[in-house]
Design a protein that fits this description.
By secondary structure, this protein is α/β, with parallel strands linked by helices. 46% of the residues lie in helices and 14% in strands. It contains twelve helices and eight strands. The strands form two sheets. It has a four-stranded parallel sheet, sandwiched between helices. It has a four-stranded parallel sheet with strand order 6-5-7-8, sandwiched between helices. The two termini are 15 Å apart.
Length: 342
C-alpha cells in the first residue's frame, strides 16, 4: 500500500529556554546546517551558542506561541489533515527536528500497511539545510529500520507553474484592499558556501550578477537561483514593474558571508528611500513560523516604522490555502499512479 509523508522543519516542545535549548542543539549540530568540522561545530554550538542564545530565542518564541502550541506544528497538522481529506491512502506528518521525528512518521505509515512512501519536504526550493538534510536522514532511517520500504520524494517545486499560480493568487488575495509601493520577497538565508557546495558543476556558481540567470545544470540544486526564479515568475504573474519589487534574505548567523541583500537592511533602505507603504512575502516557507511571525512581521515592521515607513503588510504563507491543499493532494494522487522504483 502507498502512503505519503509531509516533512517540515520542526519546533521546540515549548517556548521555555530549556526546550528551546534542546531544539537548537539538535538543529545547529546538523552538519548540513552548520557545515564545519565536528570539533568546530561542537565548540561553536555547545560552547557558545547554547550558552547565550536560548533565552533570547525563547523570548521570541513566546511572542508568537499560540494557545494550541507552536504555530508551525499547528499549521502543519492542519495542512496534513486537509490533504488527507483528498487522498485515499494514509498521509502522515513529521518534522526534521524535535519529537515528531521522521522515524515516527514512517513508522506510522508502516503500521498502517504502507510499503511505498512519497516523501514531501515542505520547501519549494532545494537547500542543504532543508531538503537535503531531510532526504539524507530519511534514507538513513529507512536503511536502519525499514529496509523493505520504498521511498520516492517530491523534487523542488519552486518553478512548477501550478505552484507559482497558487502562490501568486495567495499574494493577490492577501493584498486586497491594501496599498503598497513595494513588494519584498524575503527568503531564508544560507551561507554563500552552501551555494558553492551544492554546485554539481563545481564551476558555475559564483554568486555574482549573472550566474543565476545563465542556464546551467547547477540550478537544479542552487538555492539562490531558485529563490530568484520564484520572485521573477510571481512578479510576472502579478504584472509588477521592475522597480516595484525586490528579493532579500533573512536570518544570518555568525560572521561568514551569507546571501545578500539582507532583509533587515533592505527594509531599512526602502524606508529611508521614501517608501511609505510596503508588503513582504516569505516564499521559502509554506507554513508560518518563528521567522515569518516574529522576525518579519514584528521586527521587520519595527525597522520600517523607525525609518519613516507607515504601512507594513505581511503576507501569510500558504498554510492551509485551499488551492495549495488541492495542489499537494493532486501531486500525491498523481504519484500514486506511478510505480516507485526500488
Amino acid at each position: 500500500m502507498k502512503g505519503a509523508l509531509l516533512v517540515n522543519l520542526g519546533s521546540p516542545e515549548s517556548p521555555e529556554p530549556k526546550d528551546v535549548k534542546k531544539y537548537l542543539g539538535e538543529f545547529l549540530m546538523d552538519e548540513r546546517v552548520i557545515d564545519v568540522p565536528l570539533w568546530a561545530r561542537t565548540l561553536l554550538v555547545k560552547g557558545i551558542i547554547l550558552n547565550t542564545r536560548p533565552k533570547a530565542s525563547a523570548a521570541a518564541y513566546k511572542k508568537i506561541w499560540w494557545e494550541d502550541g507552536s504555530p508551525l506544528i499547528v499549521l502543519s497538522e492542519q495542512l496534513q489533515e486537509k490533504v488527507q481529506e483528498q487522498v485515499d491512502f494514509p498521509v502522515a506528518l513529521a518534522m526534521r527536528y524535535g519529537s515528531m521525528t521522521i522515524k515516527k512518521g514512517l513508522q506510522e505509515l508502516v503500521d498502517k500497511g504502507c510499503d511505498e512512501v512519497f516523501l514531501i519536504p515542505l520547501y519549494p526550493q532545494f537547500a542543504m539545510a532543508t531538503t537535503e538534510t531531510i532526504l539524507v536522514l530519511a534514507e538513513e532511517v529507512r536503511q536502519e529500520f525499514f529496509p523493505n520500504l520504498k521511498i520516492d520524494s517530491l523534487p523542488a517545486f519552486y518553478n512548477n507553474p501550478e505552484y507559482i499560480t497558487v502562490l501568486a493568487n495567495s499574494i493577490i488575495d492577501d493584498l486586497k484592499g491594501k496599498e503598497y509601493e513595494h513588494l519584498l520577497f524575503s527568503y531564508h538565508g544560507v551561507p554563500e558556501r552552501h551555494i558553492r557546495k551544492s554546485d554539481i558543476t563545481k564551476s558555475h556558481c559564483k554568486i555574482d550578477g549573472s550566474c543565476c540567470a545563465t542556464p546551467s545544470k547547477a540550478h537544479e540544486f542552487c538555492y539562490r537561483h531558485q529563490c530568484l526564479e520564484v520572485t521573477r515568475l510571481v512578479a510576472e504573474k502579478l504584472n509588477l514593474n521592475e522597480d516595484a519589487y525586490s528579493t532579500s534574505f533573512q536570518s544570518r548567523l555568525g560572521f561568514d558571508p551569507w546571501l545578500q541583500p539582507y532583509t533587515d537592511r533592505t527594509i531599512e533602505r526602502l524606508g529611508k528611500k521614501g517608501i511609505k507603504t510596503m508588503a513582504i512575502a516569505t516564499p521559502a516557507f509554506v507554513s508560518d513560523c518563528l521567522e515569518t511571525l516574529e522576525e518579519i512581521a514584528m521586527e521587520g515592521e519595527e525597522i520600517f516604522h523607525e525609518v519613516g515607513g507607515k504601512e507594513f503588510s505581511t503576507i501569510s504563507c500558504l498554510n492551509t490555502n485551499k488551492e495549495w491543499v488541492s495542489l499537494l493532494a493532486k501531486w500525491i494522487n498523481e504519484w500514486s499512479k506511478t510505480p516507485v522504483e526500488a
